[in-house]
Specification:
318 residues; alpha/beta; 5-stranded mixed sheet; 13 helices
Length: 318
């Protein structure tokens, strides 16, 4: 028994030493808060200025939603350029990605240019990546399906736009909806297909919350962490099998996102009517300007044809 404890302590020392060596390898600056350590370079100090403030505000909301708080501080890296971003993420992020989470390393990585936008975008990006970290740490050695991981991150960061409804409706129309289990390969997708995958993932998590409640979502995460079995976690957390959930979700998407439901949606109708009014307004203004221009020509006698067609004998012979 004592030998087992000695081996365990030795492994823990090695892991902690590796973590300290990783931190010492950073040649830039570092700042710390209650739950985060921010690593950045002096030239990006302005972009890093409010990162800790924003991410600390998101920490409470994200951890409450998932029902878990990491025991150690999360490392937040602000990469100076794309090359450094790829080095910090081991090149695992597609070219369209501007943020990444590496739960195994307890690490969030942002590109400075991507994190230097308006506060709303910054909040969304940080909440999205923080969700990946918290869920990953909550699950430990278990793995969540990619749709659950991405969908929860999008749901928590409120990433849904009207265009995504049209995207899902179009996928239904052309029978190109992506099965949720295939979303695990999203990093190999091009951006259009990835956008659809993320939209479906959001809808799957939104369906869980709306149909079963936030408590059921937390039970699902907790059971998945304990058993590592998604079907078992679904049964205990939601009261349905995994296959039943997939079918129920698909039926709900068909019900809500076919073209008739999109067209009959009040928001869509009002948006269409507003767009139509704008188009009519500009058409009328264009016609009015053309009429005024014609009146000006009449007033100056410039609208008369130089050779009126009805002038008698103009084209007659001698």
């Amino acid at each position: 028994m004592s030998r087992c404890w000695a081996v365990l302590i030795f492994l823990l020392i090695l892991l902690s030493a590796g973590s300290r060596a990783e931190d010492r390898s950073w040649t830039g600056l570092a700042e710390s808060s209650d739950h985060f350590i921010l690593f950045f370079r002096s030239e990006n100090a302005r972009a890093a200025g409010n990162l800790l403030t924003v991410v600390e505000r998101e920490y409470e909301r994200v951890t409450d939603m998932i029902g878990y708080r990491p025991r150690e501080k999360i490392h937040l890296y602000l990469a100076g350029d794309r090359a450094e971003f790829e080095r910090l993420t081991s090149g695992a992020i597609p070219e369209w990605g501007i943020g990444a989470a590496v739960p195994a390393r307890n690490r969030i990585v942002l590109i400075a240019s991507g994190g230097d936008g308006n506060r709303q975008n910054l909040r969304q990006i940080l909440a999205h990546e923080l969700s990946h970290i918290v869920l990953g740490r909550a699950l430990g050695t278990a793995r969540a399906p990619r749709w659950l991981d991405e969908g929860l991150a999008m749901y928590i960061s409120h990433e849904w736009k009207m265009g995504q409804s049209v995207l899902v409706a179009r996928a239904l129309l052309f029978h190109s909806l992506i099965p949720l289990d295939e979303i695990s390969r999203v990093n190999t997708f091009g951006q259009p297909r990835a956008n659809l995958a993320y939209a479906e993932s959001f809808l799957a998590v939104a369906f869980i919350v709306e149909r079963f409640g936030e408590d059921a979502l937390q039970r699902l995460v907790g059971e998945l962490a304990s058993s590592g079995d998604m079907d078992l976690a679904m049964g205990i957390g939601l009261g349905v099998t995994y296959r039943e959930f997939l079918q129920q979700w698909h039926n709900e998407v068909v019900r809500r996102f076919n073209w008739m439901s999109i067209i009959s949606d009040p928001i869509v109708l009002w948006s269409f009517m507003l767009s139509l009014l704008v188009v009519v307004f500009f058409l009328k203004r264009h016609r009015a300007r053309r009429t005024l221009k014609q009146w000006e020509l009449v007033e100056h006698g410039l609208d008369e044809e130089p050779f009126p067609q009805d002038a008698p004998g103009r084209w007659t012979g001698p």
